[in-house]
Amino acid sequence: MSIDWFIMESVGQTGAAIIALTIVWTCNREGERINVTRSQVNLKEAITKGETSLGIELGSTRIKAVLIDQSFETIASGSFEWENQLKGGYWTYSQEDILKGLQTAYRELKQEVDRNYGVTLRTAGSIGFSAMMHGYLAFDGKGELLVPFRTWRNATTGQAARELTNLFQFNIPERWSIAHLYQAVLNEEEHVPRIDFITTLSGYIHWLLTGNKAIGIGDASGMFPIDEASHNYHATMIGQFDDRIASKGYAWKLEELLPKVYVSGEQAGELTEAGALLLDPAGDLQPGIPLCPPEGDAGTGMVATNSVKKRTGNVSVGTSVFAMIVLEKELSKVYPEIDMVTTPDGSPVAMSHANNCSSDLNAWVGLFREFSEAMGFDIDSGKLFSVLLNKALEADPDGGGLLSYGYLSGENITGIEKGRPLFVRSPESHFNLANFMRTHLFSAFGALKLGMDILTENEHVAIDSILAHGGLFKTPVVGQRIVAAALNVPVSVMSTAGEGGAWGMALLASYLTGKASGESLADFLEGKVFKDVEGTEIAPDAKDVEGFGAFVERYKAGLAIEQAAVEHLLENGGR
């Protein structure tokens, strides 16, 4: 019996017509909901079968977990907010917070899966972990952390960095793991003879969950120089280091301390029972899931912006800011302002990394929030940022003669060893809100600009495109215009820019299990992930470029003021 016959027999011809029209109207009106329901059914099946990839990134202010499907769309996410702390003279995060944040981000993601799809997350097709690069995590033979985690933000390794740069004839920044290790040697720290293993934050998490002391080549390139031909640590430099410290009589050799290097697409272990329980204390997550190599946030930024091909680059904006340009050839000489690292598949990359970017800007926005609350207004965070940032577009091109340094920590590019945030103006400066906001935006990219000028002006590095990502670009246009003015190249933001490093890490995990035979990472990203992704490009405006240039000259001239603040303004304001 057909439904048409049933309706006719029950209500007659007129009633049948009304019901039929109602059904058509309802289907049209609810088509989107029906499609979503069908999609949810398909995603539920994909989640159950493990046709997904999980990426978790431990950033400087947030730990984020992202689950994606085989179309590289985000299914669910979770996060944990945290901040580094200055303890014992070192910027650090505690082991307790590392594990708490990891578990919290995963638990939130798992709850979202249950809430949206009605299924308990038990497996994934692949997993990857990433984190802020560099730093120093040193363990003894029992796996005990010997000293608190020393992050990239510490500017305490100047002597070591200078000596190693001279020894290797290769720039060793203060942030790099080898600089931290050698500084500990120079300081004759008591823990050094007992070291069995050193790694980065991503390598630490990977080790906990797999038992494998592994690291992706991009993150490894921020620990120790990489030989492009062998895709491994530079053997000659390893020998030079061992010779340099031979008189100390340590029982270890450097190569024995470092994690094994993997390139993207290689399996770097699988989730153990202990690892599954650590990530998911509820016990639902099953072991045996393959893991891709752990990577640094620079590598995931390149992946998330499709910037792993030569002559491409990206700018990542957060607590720190860095620009990464994939090179066609080696630089002509060593520059202390430029890091030489690699893409996740091992291509050479020139990296201009500034320790300070958004923290001081965020602090000023927080002050405006306090004022608005004191006036009785409860303003949405997104709107507050949008209003204040857009005021910068109304400003004088150079920021009205104002000057700021958002140095919450030392800044290696400008040679400032300690953090002293400053805002400076002269009686003749044009002091208003628009110029104030423009100046702080300019300042966020001031040190980065000095590093990038080396590449473009001294080395004549060709850049076809710059992709930008980070929270600043959630406000349309403003951030792009400022970065375009700073770098004097067109800057694009893709519709995926808000996905961030955790999404980039999930893509690397997906590449592990989803690549075709012989398919390069660049081809995988270009032909599959970003094939239909849209973006917006903003070309540099001549007035903005000229204005930023004037600001940078003022910025360089004023560094003596910043240095004086370091020398005369005591820690904690002299308390």
TrEMBL record:
<dbReference type="InterPro" id="IPR018484">
    <property type="entry name" value="FGGY_N"/>
</dbReference>
<dbReference type="Pfam" id="PF02782">
    <property type="entry name" value="FGGY_C"/>
</dbReference>
<dbReference type="InterPro" id="IPR018485">
    <property type="entry name" value="FGGY_C"/>
</dbReference>
<dbReference type="GO" id="GO:0005975">
    <property type="term" value="P:carbohydrate metabolic process"/>
</dbReference>
<keyword id="KW-0808">Transferase</keyword>
<protein>
    <submittedName>
        <fullName>ATPase</fullName>
    </submittedName>
</protein>
<dbReference type="Pfam" id="PF00370">
    <property type="entry name" value="FGGY_N"/>
</dbReference>
<keyword id="KW-0418">Kinase</keyword>
<dbReference type="InterPro" id="IPR050406">
    <property type="entry name" value="FGGY_Carb_Kinase"/>
</dbReference>
<dbReference type="InterPro" id="IPR043129">
    <property type="entry name" value="ATPase_NBD"/>
</dbReference>
<dbReference type="GO" id="GO:0016301">
    <property type="term" value="F:kinase activity"/>
</dbReference>
<feature type="domain" description="Carbohydrate kinase FGGY C-terminal">
    <location>
        <begin position="314"/>
        <end position="511"/>
    </location>
</feature>
<comment type="similarity">
    <text>Belongs to the FGGY kinase family.</text>
</comment>
<feature type="domain" description="Carbohydrate kinase FGGY N-terminal">
    <location>
        <begin position="54"/>
        <end position="277"/>
    </location>
</feature>
